[in-house]
Amino acid sequence: MNTPIRRLGVVGMILILALLANLTWVQVVEAPGLRTDARNPRLLIAEYSKPRGQISADGMLLASSTPTSDSLKYLRQYPNGAEYAPVTGYFSQLYGSTGLERASDAVLNGSDDRLLFHRISDLVSGRDPTPGNVVTTIDPHMQDVAYQDMTSKGYSGAVVAIQPSTGAILAMVSTPSFDPAPLASHDAAVQKKAWTDDNAANPTTLLNRAISQTYPPGSTFKLVDLAAALQDGYTPDTAVTAENRITLPGTTTTLENYNGEHCGPGSGTQVPLSEALARSCNTAFATVADQVGVDKLRAAAQAFGIDGPTQQIPQTVAGSTLGDLPDAAALAQSGIGQRDVRLTPLQNAEIAATIANGGVRMAPHLIKEIDGPDLSVIDTTAPEQLGQAIPATVAGTIRDMMIGSEQFTTGHGSIPGVTIASKTGTAEHGVDSKTTPPHTWYSAFAPAANPTVAISVIVEDGGHLGDAATGGSVASPIARDVMAAALADGVNG
Fold it and tell me: Within a 10 A sphere around the Cβ of 376, how many other Cβ atoms?
């Protein structure tokens, strides 16, 4: 065989080997990715060839599938639309999925291992595979009250209510919200229009503010200061500064109380720590944070879950953070929930729930149970303790001080015969915080002596009161209405 023919044969063999290698790569290595690629029309047809499982809350249907006459045999529907969108999320051909539609996809499409028995039964009987169903922890009455209160005044923000003893999420509202139904349409044009309209109305409409957005917590963070201080030898009677204005350590920058007010009655230079919390005095808590120190404040924050591992409820929760504390001035500012401190509304609700639960932090969760196709219960979420964040005695002391804070809190909606423990917050934010309406917060639990519900509410940019807004005047009435709904429903702690 001459040299040119031999070379041609070698080249041919190399090309054949390359072809085989490429075929093997596509069929073996890339096959799983190609099968699950959203652009694969076979995947789409297969996905919609069978009904998707239901999502519900206390018997109320939140998401279900109905038969159609087109090539995609089932259409996803959301009977309660925007109110429950932060819970259900959306399920869209073009834009994927969010919320429980994504986090519980394996249950809803029937591939979850907990449905193995039902899959085997379907195979033996010759039936099409049937999906599982997700039952949430949401209390529909509380959810409705929270949503109506937020939307009736056009507020942007979030409401999260938790059962302190279990961590069950009883309400989770984010406004403005969106209707998931158009995003689930089989008509691509309808999906695109809904997506464009939702984002045009507000770039964060599709964002679940309750778990995906972080905010400066303002004075609600003083509860974390208290936890650190009380474990460092402070008592409710410890004297703290009553000055209306202080100079931040190591700087010429001043920090003042709300409206530049003196802390407490009279003109004395000091007040008890309990009085400083009740009146939410910035100068006192900035000084306390500085005296407690970086390490102890950070340890207290981490015990509540701040700067901790990523949470799944089962949706992924954005991380809350204390931020950098490079010097004493930064520490003092962080002590009043400003500078780089950022919390999700869920995290703030967790702090209140932990105090309400005697200092024991419970894992928040949104799923009550997983049901099979025949609605039999195949799995339930057991309450999970995440640790003793603070001693029970410290939790009791903070509770008593929060009762004092509630007595100074304005806003309607007090619940006759029910003692509430609370803390308000008015958080500066924006490029020019002095000319930007503040975010308003209210974190609370009730009944104070035997808590059955803990809640956190944030209303962005001052709500309807703008620059004059406070957590008491804007956020507290919403929370009290939701707590009243919880008590009316007989929610147990």
Answer: 9
Active-site residue, 92 included: no
- The answer, yes or no, to whether residue 29 has pLDDT greater than 70, is no
Q: Which of 40-54, 158-172, 197-211 has the highest mean pLDDT?
A: 158-172
Residue 324 tokens read as 């950098």
Q: Count of alpha carbons within 13 Å of 168, Cβ hemisphere only?
A: 23
263-302 residue pLDDT tens: 988 888 999 999 999 999 999 999 999 999 999 999 999 9
Integer Cα distance of 252 and 405 in angstroms: 31
pLDDT higher than 90, residue 390: yes
Binned at pLDDT 50, 70 and 90, residue 460 comes out as: very high
- Smallest Cα–Cα separation from 40: which of 28, 30, 25, 50? 30
Crossing angle of helices 392-406/222-230, nearest 10°?
A: 140
What's the DSSP call for residue 318?
P
Crossing angle for the helix pair 294-303 and 282-292, to the nearest 10 degrees: 100
- The percentage of residues in the chain with a pLDDT greater than 90, rounded to a whole number, is 72
* pLDDT of 190 higher than 60: yes
d(CA 76, CA 229): 52
Using one digit for the tens of pLDDT, what is the confidence trace for 419-458? 999 999 998 887 777 778 899 999 999 999 999 999 999 9
Closest CA relative to residue 89, chosen from 116, 52, 127, 34: 52
**Which sign, positive or negative, has the C-alpha torsion 425, 429, 435, 438?**
negative
From the candidates 165, 219, 473, 476, which is the catalytic residue? 219
Distances in whole angstroms, Cα of residue 20 to Cα of each of 16, 28, 377, 448: 6, 12, 49, 71
Sign of the four-CA dihedral 312, 316, 319, 320: negative
pLDDT band at 13 (very low <50, low <70, confident <90, very high): confident
Other C-beta atoms closer than 10 Å to the C-beta of 412 total 9
- State how far the Cα of 194 lies from the Cα of 206, in Å rounded to an integer: 11
Q: How many residues does the chain have?
A: 493
By three-state DSSP, how is residue 264 classified? coil
Side chain identity at residue 76, one-letter code: R
With beta carbons less than 8 A apart as the criterion, state whether 101 and 107 touch. Answer: no
Contact 459, 416 (CB under 8 A): no
pLDDT the model gives residue 342 = 98
Q: How far is CA 226 from CA 51, 229, 264, 297, 347, in A?
A: 51, 5, 18, 9, 17
- Residue 446: name the closest of 409, 238, 468 by CA: 409
All domains in the chain, ordered by first residue = 218-366+389-488 (3.40.710.10)
Which of 487, 489, 425 has the alpha carbon at shortest distance from 457?
425
- Token pair, residue 259, equals 């409206």
Neighbour count for residue 56 (Cβ, 10 Å)? 20
Neighbours of 50 (CB within 10 A): 15
